[in-house]
């Protein structure tokens, strides 16, 4: 079995996927066509060019892409479609467990945060009938200010306590342009969220920012680090930061294509994955934005294996260890581990026979 087929066949866990950033070309083109027919005015003429896939962009350009994508997805019908499409694409890629994240938005006359969350949760509920388990993290966009973050937490709590949706929401994500705003301002929101029983996935050190990174890590509130490109002392971080991550046992979500294509990490051979992996620290391979960065979880596994000379056993270990970094309660984690072990065993058996 070649590496590409092997990576596709691996039963995988995806823990860092932004809904709007995960839209495939097919979905985006369909939405764009519909908007053009409506004669939407706030869509730039060059939208098709800006959206052209796969090429490298600066972080600033990535956020321009998100602006256009948000314009295309500014209503509940589109939201329903994209949620369903993205989930099905992860199923196609043999993802067994998905923690999807998205920023609830208010669009006057079109949707409230409540309707946004409810729509995503309803589609998740429907799609779980297929071969996948899904949980939702609500994203706080650091560029939208602290008041908006409090508001998102308020609405999140409302849905956590509803019997119908209770177990589907597992945490809060802090994301958004890392060059805008200051994470330190969000600490009170994070403290309140933890008290309310939410786990926290925080984009930390996506770009170099020693003061912010130290402050957030020292808070002890972070359940998983997103990116963490400038934490390891061999990659522009410090020993103090590494010690904090290790002492608090914080797993790191690794998004290689995202880092390389947005230019926050110079080249793949410089990627911080290798240092944490060698030191046995929990790392999870993720896509971040499979649409914007023209990738898939299987391709991320393949790229990682080729660059860092990982064996089949290493790749299986990465899949299985990701179970421990999920935001599932213990009993559900145990269930998931069992399923993953069975699927991996089956794959190994096939390998032996091929
Ligand atoms: P959404 O929350 O479903 O609308 O997904 C897109 C949003 O995710 C963007 O507007 C950003 O706030 C966030 N996001 C996606 N990728 C990144 C990243 O690499 N760094 C920081 N934030 C990101
Ligand atoms: Zn992200």
Automatic annotation (TrEMBL):
Occurrences of domain Adenosine deaminase (ranges): 11-341
SUPFAM superfamilies (UniProt xref): Metallo-dependent hydrolases
GO molecular function, one term: metal ion binding
Name of the protein described by the UniProt record: Adenosine deaminase domain-containing protein
Family the entry assigns: Belongs to the metallo-dependent hydrolases superfamily. Adenosine and AMP deaminases family.
GO terms classed as biological process: adenosine catabolic process; inosine biosynthetic process; nucleotide metabolic process
Organism: Halocaridina rubra
UniProt keyword annotations, A-Z: Hydrolase, Metal-binding, Nucleotide metabolism, Zinc
Catalytically driven reaction(s): N(6)-methyl-AMP + H2O + H(+) = IMP + methylamine
Signal sequence interval, chain numbering: none
Cofactors (names): Zn(2+)
Phylogenetic placement of the source organism: Eukaryota, Metazoa, Ecdysozoa, Arthropoda, Crustacea
InterPro entries, per database record: A_deaminase_dom, Ado/ade_deaminase, Metal_Hydrolase
Pfam family for this entry, one: A_deaminase
